[in-house]
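Quick question, first post here. What does this chain look like in 3D?
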Amino acid sequence: MKPSVTVFVPCYNEENTIYGLLDSLSKQTYPLNKLEVLIIDGHSTDNTLNQIDQFKNHHSELPIRVINNPHRQIPHALNIGCNSASGEILLRMDAHSIPSENYVELCVEGLILKKGDNIGGKWKIVPSKSSGVAKAIAIAAAHPLGSGGASYRSGNDAKHVDTVPFGCFFRITYRKVGPFDESLLANEDYEWNYRLIESGGKIWFDPNIVCNYLARADLPSLAKQYRNYGYWKRQMLSKYPSSLRLRQALPVLLVLMLSLALLLLAIGVITSSTFLTWAGVMMILSHPFLIIISFIKERTGITLLNFSLVVASLMTIHISWGYGFLWRSLKFLVKKNS
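> Answer (accepted):
Ran it through. Tokens below.
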């Protein structure tokens, strides 16, 4: 007898992607009579709810419930979903994702075989639009320079890891670890996984479990996304300082270096110091130069324009993450000294 599974999805204004997600869930190899889908909606103002209703009208074989999220934030939605689920197993999914047809089956299999207490797989990052910028962002976000070498973005070996996206776990594990931290508006899954490991649990990454993830479509949206990641990572560090990884510290050091470079450049211009001016310029140019050197071998088949957009996307990821982290650090200092 296969265990029942609840797929819970935080959702807000996802009219362009929610139908595709539900369609992929309806095609799962796992028995649909053992599946339940919960959409935790944060008062969507677009056509999301109509899209869900249309899907339900044509796919009665897949049980779907829409639950209101009055807080309109992701960690609240996750806790609402876990507490409202009827399944023995809970599986998180996002509204802008398309899981492979065997996604649920492989996740459940990993739990049954006791490979880990939280099972997850690989993000295959794909463009959300056909524009050159969107394609470049997808390439950048999937590359180790954009992911920091996180297994779920670029790993190919099954192993125990520190986190996975869209994890799958038993309901009893959720109760043991506790709810998602609602004070974190990003990194809430990483923080929950950290507590899972601290409690003696293990997280299993299986590259055969694949989910297409729709990347941001433009640079401003990408900057906002990674600024939030950095900001809320700093918030998490106030509780778990040891959770910082080298890949997360590097963007912070980069922004500090660029800030120093701008200072040197300004002083050089004001004082007519050629040395300080060029020192500032060279430090600023070192960032895109290092990206180009690291990425140049993989430029095959990419036009010069698209390659430039990939470099710009990687720069946006690094600087935005570091800026968000430092901005939250500054706010901590101001609050501490006030």
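Residues 242-337 form one domain.
The chain has two domains: 5-217, 242-337.
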